[in-house]
Design goal:
Mean pLDDT: 88
Order of helices and strands: EEEHE
Largest sheet: 2 strands, antiparallel
Low-confidence stretches: none
Number of strands: 4
Oligomer: single chain
Number of helices: 1
Strand content: 5-15%
Helix content: under 10%
Distance between the termini: 20 Å
Length: about 80
């Protein structure tokens, strides 16, 4: 399987790396509605337990794996930063 590259331009995310890369070992892309109604610990590590949903356009999606840099929330979701 080819290696996947996730690109991100949210520079204040804990998983952001030089070159606009996401270095989270997992990410969860969800609908905005789902993301807005779930606590931070509901993330990629729980994806097998979540129900898939449909959205109408890309503006209705969000990256649920966002964690602000230097915040106390790092690790709350079980996601790790790859080196």
């Amino acid at each position: 399987m080819p290696q996947q590259h996730i690109h991100c331009i949210v520079s204040n995310c804990h998983y952001y790396a030089a070159g606009n890369k996401c270095v989270a070992n997992e990410i969860l892309v969800a609908s905005d509605k789902f993301g807005a109604n779930q606590p931070d610990n509901v993330d990629a590590s729980m994806s097998a337990q979540l129900t898939a949903v449909s959205v109408n356009d890309c503006m209705s999606t969000c990256c649920k794996s966002f964690v602000p840099k230097d915040s106390g929330k790092v690790g709350v979701d079980g996601i790790k930063k790859m080196q």
